[in-house]
Amino acid sequence: MQLSPDLEKLVRRIADEQERPTEAVIADALREYVLRTDARGAFVAEAEAGWESYGVTRLHVTGPELDHWLGGWGKRVGETPPACHD
């Protein structure tokens, strides 16, 4: 893997500060990037599926309905989430 001189210098500085090999710093950064990118993809897929479902059913909950329900978390025991409606 080829790093720019500036990035390589930064990786070395971080590795020195953490007393770790540069390869470990790069591996951690790559792992975090891949996991974050995967999570973002899953979030987008879930949002698109929700939008498609809304397009078919037109069922939804309004912002104020959701705010009211969320505002009661920890205060109103056993309250069910608002029902979807068209």
Order of helices and strands: HHH
Number of strands: 0
Envelope shape:
elongated
Report the total helices.
3
Structure report:
This protein has helices spanning 5-18, 22-57, 63-71. It has one domain (5-71). It is an all-alpha fold and 86 residues long. Helix 1 (5-18) packs across helix 2 (22-57). The protein is elongated and about 55 Å long.
Helix-strand blueprint:
Blueprint: H1 5-18, H2 22-57, H3 63-71
Helix pairs in contact: 1-2
Brief overview:
The chain is mainly alpha-helical. 69% of the residues lie in helices and 0% in strands.
Features:
86 residues, 69% helix, elongated, mainly alpha
